[in-house]
Amino acid sequence: MFSVTVRDHMMIAHSFRGEVFGPAQRLHGATFVVDVTFRGPELDRDDILVDIGLATRHVREVVGALGYRNLDDDPDFAGVNTSTEVLARTIAERVADRVRAGDLGGATDQVTGLVVTLHESHVAWASYECDL
Amino acid sequence: MFSVTVRDHMMIAHSFRGEVFGPAQRLHGATFVVDVTFRGPELDRDDILVDIGLATRHVREVVGALGYRNLDDDPDFAGVNTSTEVLARTIAERVADRVRAGDLGGATDQVTGLVVTLHESHVAWASYECDL
Amino acid sequence: MFSVTVRDHMMIAHSFRGEVFGPAQRLHGATFVVDVTFRGPELDRDDILVDIGLATRHVREVVGALGYRNLDDDPDFAGVNTSTEVLARTIAERVADRVRAGDLGGATDQVTGLVVTLHESHVAWASYECDL
Amino acid sequence: MFSVTVRDHMMIAHSFRGEVFGPAQRLHGATFVVDVTFRGPELDRDDILVDIGLATRHVREVVGALGYRNLDDDPDFAGVNTSTEVLARTIAERVADRVRAGDLGGATDQVTGLVVTLHESHVAWASYECDL
Amino acid sequence: MFSVTVRDHMMIAHSFRGEVFGPAQRLHGATFVVDVTFRGPELDRDDILVDIGLATRHVREVVGALGYRNLDDDPDFAGVNTSTEVLARTIAERVADRVRAGDLGGATDQVTGLVVTLHESHVAWASYECDL
Amino acid sequence: MFSVTVRDHMMIAHSFRGEVFGPAQRLHGATFVVDVTFRGPELDRDDILVDIGLATRHVREVVGALGYRNLDDDPDFAGVNTSTEVLARTIAERVADRVRAGDLGGATDQVTGLVVTLHESHVAWASYECDL
Predict the structure, then answer these.
(1) Dmax over Cα atoms in chain A, in whole Å?
(2) pTM score, whole prediction
(3) Local confidence band at A105 (pLDDT 50, 70, 90 cut-offs)
């Protein structure tokens, strides 16, 4: 099994609803360093799993669409806490859509799974993984 | 599948028995940077897998109980080498006990697995993973 | 010359005023990983420059007072952009006040300078350094 | 399940064939920081999965044989692009051969899988994993 | 004194002339993770030392002009070994030219020094610093 | 001004005398990731400040002589706490002796200063710098 990972980041504001969050119920923010991992059992005829340049560009678009925003105002997250877990899943689903749509070229047929990891600090991070 | 990881560390002394260890048979020590990963397929009604604050507190207690000690004197490790692998398993088992006991709140029902990684230096680390 | 550094972090929301900031004029946020470096030419009679435990506690208080907030609402920053440079200076000044007040014990007489570095992502950071 | 990882690196020149590679079709190079992970369900009578010293030595030999070279001239890679994925697989296969040959001592019977990760920069890396 | 640092990277091939280089006399390559630090005593009216976006763009151009190349063929380095130290100086000089030319906007007047650090691996790096 | 840094590590046991150290008065240990930085204003005729291979070898010897030991038993540290600051100074002095003795080849004349940084964990480190 092969995997290829590219790293990007985004800077967002948000707040959480629920006593469990303590002071994080206040409006605050985060830099999320985002690692998107593409997985698959075979390489293509160019001897790669994905075109890293193409992967980087699509991850940039997906992550960039979330950045420099207050996620509390984003209708896509109405009624849900934008926890690190939820944001990892959202990015994974949006990248998955692009893979399925053929946007990643040859990788469309080869990538069988994704893992998205969001680092919220040097001491905490969360991941979401899914099959394609 | 989701995962959440929190990082802590401990500083311990120990020695190893067995020729395979070479100079590490002498009393020496290590800083272990400890990553504890909680895994599970579902989020709770607060949209999280575990309360990171609560997880951090319990990991601190488990890791803190081992720190600033000579592990050669700890009866829990009598007759066993406190290798990085063994310490990763010990920490995983102790955190697992707390999850099973309900100490991590809602996460008790959601966390289905743990991975504990101990970094002994910038060039070597070991992990232990288990289901709950 | 000796130096000792301790690392902490904070998660904040803010926005910037000025066309130069582009999309960062919108409300967004950041995790700042904060490194506070104490500098001085001599060690004390315990053979240390600062008590790392004490330093860690005071840095935690200074950094914690800024965290989980929207800095746009903080009167201490009225009329100023809370750029990474400005926040590094603010934290340095607040830690410097504590050193001068004798809060860091023996280090009060030994620490002759501070450097505060704020990492806003894996690809950008800023520092402020000052003499005491 | 246990795992032990050791890190090394190599510095190589190469070029790629295929339009997908854009400017990387030109002769260029890379530092690959190489992480080799040994996996297995049981520890040996010394309470370790692998002897880290022995593992480090064999990884050094495998990685060192590739380093300080232009991989375009290496007959082992004739007709194949030396992508990060391909190099991860090559290193995994060569380490696997050594494990199977008994070169890693007791680990020969215990190691049931390998993962090799090559970091080509701070923002991109690739892995290959296999069972033994 | 303030400083702001942005990180980028380049992947190049080269060889060295001189017995001191041992196997690195052969054609090989490197990924250089490049940190460019701008230093200055004052912030501008936007409360920043440099516009990070603008700095990132210019560093990208300077570093990008060197990347995906065999530096042995670059006339700018005729007769000189492209050691990590030499490349750090080259990048510093080229960024300095842009600062002096006013390309970094307000930073032109404020930036009084540069430090460029090139990481050639996880265990070795080199820097060049200069006044403006 | 140029600088070149090489990284190594050591694993030691020790204890501290003095109430300020709290639980660290007990026998414990540490992994120190050691960065040795050589500084100087000029490059030699090979276009380098120091031969990284030679520097790595000498740093290995200096650091290796301290590793896998209980520093409480080392007569070189009798009556002194082996704090991170003290160990940074010790390593700097021992590397400085080798530079002065001509062990680093051409670098003997070029290296005008040293900085040694010891990372005791992911959240604390200390440095000692000196002129030659």
Answers:
(1) 53
(2) 0.98
(3) confident
Question: Which residue type occupies A19?
Answer: E
Say whether pLDDT at C107 is over 80.
no
CA F37 from chain center: how many Å? 9
> DSSP for E76-122?
GGTTS---HHHHHHHHHHHHHHHHHTTTTTTHHHH--EEEEEEEEET
Q: Considering only residues E108 and B128, tell me which one the structure prediction assigns the higher pLDDT.
A: B128
**What is the spatial distance between Cα C119 and Cα B55, in angstroms, rounded to a whole number?**
25
* Whether A39 contacts D85, CB under 8 Å: no
Helix, strand or coil for residue C34? strand
Would you call E52 helix, strand, or coil by DSSP? helix
What proportion of chain E, given as a percentage, has pLDDT over 90? 95
What's the pLDDT at E108?
73
For residue D83, what are the domain limits? 2-131
Question: Strand (E) positions, D15-112?
Answer: 28-40, 69-70
Residues within 8 A of E (CB atoms), D 31-70 only = 31-33, 67-70
Looking at the partner chain, which of B8, B46, B52 has a beta carbon nearest the beta carbon of A18?
B46
Cα separations in angstroms, D33 against C44, D10, E35: 40, 7, 18
CATH number of the CATH domain containing C80: 3.30.479.10
Q: Do A2 and D88 touch (CB under 8 A)?
A: yes
Return d(Cα A107, Cα A44) in angstroms, integer.
Answer: 8
The partner residue sitting opposite E81, judged by closest CB among F6, F47, F106, is F47
Give yes or no for residue F107 having a pLDDT over 70: no
* Phi, psi torsion values for D66, nearest 5 degrees: -95, -20
Q: CB-based contacts of A71: which residues, under 8 Å, 6+ apart?
A: A12, A13, A14, A77, A82, A87
Among D38, D30, D5, B123, residue whose Cα is nearest residue A52: D30
pLDDT digits (tens, 9 = 90+) for D14-62: 999 999 999 999 999 999 999 999 999 999 999 999 999 999 999 999 9
Q: Under a CB-based contact definition with an 8 Å cutoff, are residues C28 and C14 in contact?
A: yes
Which residues are CB-neighbours of B14 under 8 A, at least 6 positions away?
Answer: B27, B28, B29, B30, B70, B71, B72, B82, F13, F29
Which of E16, E81, E126 comes nearest F2 by C-beta? E126
Q: Is D24 helix (H, G, I), strand (E, B) or coil?
A: helix
- DSSP state for residue F79 in the 8-state scheme: T
DSSP string, C73-108: G-GGGTTS---HHHHHHHHHHHHHHHHHTTTTTTHH
D122 touches chain C (CB under 8 A): yes
Beta-ladder partners of A129: A115
Give the gap in angstroms from C-alpha D50 to the nearest C-alpha of chain E.
Answer: 23
Q: What ipTM was assigned to the predicted interfaces of this complex?
A: 0.96
- Tokens matching residue D47: 């309470």
H or E stretch at A48:
none
CB A81 within 8 A of CB B43: no
How many alpha carbons lie under 13 Å from residue D16 in its C-beta half-sphere? 21
Establish if D71 touches chain E: CB-CB under 8 angstroms.
Answer: no
Q: What is the CA radius of gyration of chain E?
A: 16
**pLDDT tens profile B46-91:** 999 999 999 999 999 999 999 999 999 999 999 999 999 999 999 9
